[in-house]
Amino acid sequence: MAQQAYMTETAGGGSGPERRGARLRRLWGRLAASWRGDPRIWRRGILTAAVAVLLAVVMLAHAYIPNAVGNLGSLTETFLPWLGLLVPALLVAALVRRSATALIAVLLPAVVWLNLFGGLLTDKAAAGGDLTVATHNVNADNADPAGTARAVAASGADVVALEELTAAAVPTYEKALESTYRYHSVQGTVGLWSKYPLSGVRAVDIKLGWTRAMRAAVATPAGQVAVYVAHLPSVRVKLEAGFTARQRDKSADALGEAIADEPLTRVVLLGDLNGTMNDRALNAVTSQLRSTQGAAGHGFGFSWPASFPMARIDQILVRGVEPESSWSLPQTGSDHLPLAARVRVATSGS
């Protein structure tokens, strides 16, 4: 009787997962058999295959896309990670077309994308570090500057950089942050708040005619760190002009020169650069510094627009200090997300 009950219970092929596995194997077997018997399997899907190869070439050789017409190269590099979304679409098209040629071709952009961005998918954060920094473009039209300031301070940052400050809102930010940060300086539309003393504070000329960048030496317990705060000019995408970024590019070059002339070995750059690490136009800056997100973050760390982040145009970049972790903070009243990172100032070379 017990034997009969056992046989009744297991009739039908075993447990649920096992039955599903068997069904999938049978389905794959039937699919493979139908494809093997299809004489046009290699001739169909040539267009899909061509698009896949073109996509792989664009991602692999993006640095060679010229900027002469509408800064097309920089525009492509700004949204380069999103080109990976075309890979599953091409895969579906290859399967629908039952094209072996297209399936093989789709492997090319998939491999290129993983080579470029696969490392960002892993969590590289580590415990430790002796300095926490944060940066936030607070938005000139922010309706809640006090709440925004408190939210950034709640991150536990030792040093906070704010960009897009208006003269009317500065007193509100100062009042909201004064209990946490004893030292601060505002230069034009950017400001720096610190738990540690500041010295050598000055505006940095980024060729705009008004101040949107500054530098200060922060006396951390582990040693002095030169902290730069910058808000590079905005870029626009226009139908008649393409990706307009000439002033941004000029300011990036000037900022890069200032950082290259920095006498301190430890440097942290905080700010809204209106460009990504992939954008060649920021090479004057990015060639000298490491991204904390790339070195010690998890994911892409997109910061703009806050409602649906599509690009990391806000940056925390370092030199002479070791990134330990990097993350995005919760949304505030701004159209940008605030960013934070923890770094180790007391490195072995100190």
Characterization of this structure:
By secondary structure, the chain is an alpha+beta fold. Helix content is 35%, strand content 22%. It is built from 11 helices and 14 strands. It has helices at 2-10, 16-36, 46-60, 72-78, 86-97, 100-117, 145-153, 170-177, 246-260, 283-286, 292-296; strands at residues 131-137, 159-163, 183-187, 190-194, 198-203, 213-220, 223-231, 236-238, 242-244, 267-272, 290-291, 314-319, 322-328, 339-344. The strands form 3 sheets. It has a 6-stranded mixed β-sheet. It has a 6-stranded mixed β-sheet with strand order 5-6-7-10-12-11. α5 packs antiparallel against α6 and α7 runs parallel beside α8 (170-177).
Can you give keywords for this protein?
350 residues, alpha+beta, six-stranded mixed β-sheet, 11 helices, 14 strands, 35% helix, disordered N terminus
Short description:
The chain has 350 residues and is an alpha+beta fold.
Describe the SSE topology.
Layout: H1 2-10, H2 16-36, H3 46-60, H4 72-78, H5 86-97, H6 100-117, E1 131-137, H7 145-153, E2 159-163, H8 170-177, E3 183-187, E4 190-194, E5 198-203, E6 213-220, E7 223-231, E8 236-238, E9 242-244, H9 246-260, E10 267-272, H10 283-286, E11 290-291, H11 292-296, E12 314-319, E13 322-328, E14 339-344
Parallel strand pairs: 1-2, 7-10
Antiparallel strand pairs: 1-14, 2-4, 3-4, 5-6, 6-7, 8-9, 10-12, 11-12, 13-14
Helix pairs in contact: 3-5, 3-6, 5-6, 7-8
